[in-house]
Amino acid sequence: MPPSLSRRRQLRVLAAALLAAGATPAAAGTEPAAGAYRLNPGDVIRLSVWKEESLTREATVQPDGSVSFPLAGQVPAAGRTAAELENEVRNRIARYVADPVVTIELLDARGNRVYVLGEVQKPGQFQLDRPTSLVQALALAGGLTPFAARKSIRLLRRDEKGVEQVTILDLDRVTKDTSAAGNLVLQAGDTIIVPGGSLF
To answer: What are the Soluble ligand binding domain coordinates in residue numbering (predicted)?
Structure first.
């Protein structure tokens, strides 16, 4: 077999193995995958820099959305993915550390809490460590009781100005609509209220 043909076959086998493992041809540092977790105030993270143990720190995302790291100062973190924060810190400390390799690890998604109240089996607050939909949050709360008004579920969410917005959702329509609009991903601080059928 000619060497060039053997080489091409090896490359094809390697490519197949990478695809089977879930690898993609996208280069590191590209846009985060859809649904990647975004940090919230209250989350606890660990920053480490390869071969720079003195820079390893645990930090809590502050109410203003920032974190403080040596050499990097106050860094906006809320709303960013770990990869985005890594890039920001890397750029800031590059003047002090040659070719820094920065890693951000989420230790505790303490700030990502939602509340499910009303006619569910287990009402209360729930700490989320990954993107979670309305239907998934209701499942975490044990599902609806027989008295739940499925067509009048209320989602309470504060906008950027702190004003509370109320959205009324029909669960039957939401479960049939697989689009993002139909089964929206919850945000930190969201409150879901499931009213009783006899009251609404």
So the answer is: 113-162
* Cα separations in angstroms, 13 against 7, 18, 65: 10, 9, 46
Top CATH class of 36-108 equals: alpha beta
Q: Residue ranges of the domains in the chain?
A: 36-108, 113-194
Question: How many helices (H) and strands (E) would you count in the chain?
Answer: 4, 10
This prediction has a pTM of 0.60
DSSP state of 17: H
Count Cβ atoms below 10 Å from residue 93 Cβ, excluding itself: 19
- CATH class given for the domain over 113-194: alpha beta
- pLDDT digit string (tens) for 114-133? 999 999 999 999 988 788 88
Question: How many angstroms separate the CA atoms of 180 and 194, rounded?
Answer: 21
Nearest Cα neighbor of 163 from 182, 138, 185, 189 is 189
CA angle 66, 71, 75 (to 5 degrees): 15
Distance CA 72, CA 96 (A): 10
Question: What are the tens digits of pLDDT across the range 73-88?
Answer: 999 999 899 999 999 9
Q: What is the CB neighbour count within 10 angstroms for residue 58?
A: 12
